[in-house]
């Protein structure tokens, strides 16, 4: 199983995962951006196969998905991209996010899962998977040796939390509140401490918190609630959009963003362990 997050041994910061839609920026630019994330010591890239009109995403990520779709980005293109870039990474893990209806519905589930694993993806999160397919999906992932990302909310029923904890072989994504990406929980991220503790009692896999994380202070608040990692989506995607709209360099703009949210101990010049697989 891939080691997704390396927490600072001094306890000063959580692991860092960043969300991007594949194809936004275009894949040739994204390749340079992914290599930059590896150099900067980012732990995980949640790389989405773009899909339209997500009800769980806010306007920033929905616009990003539309740009990527307009460039023709699909599952096959994303798997080719991962296969090309993954062998060059030393630290960064790639967790693929794909929507069931848009990308997987018309494929054989076991074959698709094997294809994803063969690309070099380190983990898989399937969005809106029909519950009736849960058993088959988890069996296919196990057979393919592909770690699974599961999700739940702070207010999810106990049975939902139990299932998420039981099947989280990559990490468990705790969504900070029910709503759309880019919005923060009213009570703040530190209020998730009880939920994190309850999930910790259920799973040995890392627990990552996302939704509404935009600044270094937000990252510190997630760390304070006991989570192993923080996931940042809309705030970073917004930087990509700003660079594209303004004719700037998305890689430089995103590097500046990464450095602005990383704990001080991860500043440029820090040594990141090589976790690349042989």
Give the topology, please.
Blueprint: E1 15-21, H1 27-39, E2 44-48, H2 59-70, H3 75-85, E3 93-99, H4 100-104, H5 109-119, E4 123-127, H6 134-144, E5 149-153, H7 158-167, E6 171-175, H8 193-200, E7 207-210, H9 216-224, E8 229-232, H10 234-246, H11 250-261
Parallel strand pairs: 1-2, 1-8, 2-3, 3-4, 5-6, 6-7, 7-8
Structure notes:
The chain has 278 residues and is an alpha/beta fold. The chain is built from eleven helices and eight strands. Strands 4-3-2-1-8-7-6-5 form an eight-stranded parallel sheet. Strand 1, helix 1 and strand 2 (44-48) form a beta-alpha-beta unit. Helix 1 runs parallel beside helix 11 (250-261). The model is unreliable at 266-271 (pLDDT under 50).
Write a concise synopsis of the structure shown.
The chain is an alpha/beta fold. The protein has 11 helices and 8 strands.
């Amino acid at each position: 199983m891939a080691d997704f997050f390396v927490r600072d041994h001094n306890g000063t910061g959580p692991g860092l995962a960043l969300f991007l839609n594949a194809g936004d920026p275009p894949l040739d630019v994204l390749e340079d951006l992914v290599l930059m994330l590896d150099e900067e010591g980012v732990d995980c890239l949640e790389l989405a196969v773009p899909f339209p009109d997500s009800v769980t995403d806010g306007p920033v990520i929905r616009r990003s998905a539309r740009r990527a779709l307009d460039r023709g980005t699909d599952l096959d293109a994303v798997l080719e991209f991962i296969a090309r870039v993954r062998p060059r990474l030393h630290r960064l893990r790639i967790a693929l996010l794909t929507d069931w209806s848009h990308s997987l519905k018309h494929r054989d589930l076991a074959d698709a899962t094997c294809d994803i694993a063969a690309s070099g993806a380190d983990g898989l999160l399937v969005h809106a998977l029909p519950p009736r397919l849960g058993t088959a999906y988890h069996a296919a992932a196990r057979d393919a040796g592909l770690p699974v990302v599961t999700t739940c909310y702070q207010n999810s029923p106990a049975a939902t939390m139990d299932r998420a904890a039981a099947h989280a072989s990559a990490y468990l994504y705790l969504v900070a509140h029910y709503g759309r990406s880019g919005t923060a929980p009213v009570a703040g991220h530190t209020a998730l401490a009880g939920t994190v503790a309850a999930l910790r009692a259920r799973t040995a896999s890392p627990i990552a918190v996302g939704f509404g994380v935009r600044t270094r202070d937000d990252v510190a608040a997630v760390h304070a609630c006991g989570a192993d990692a923080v996931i940042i989506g809309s705030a970073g995607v917004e930087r990509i959009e700003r660079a594209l709209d303004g004719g700037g360099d998305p890689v430089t703009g995103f590097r500046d963003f990464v450095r602005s949210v990383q704990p001080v101990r991860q500043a440029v010049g820090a040594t990141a362990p090589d976790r690349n697989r042989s």
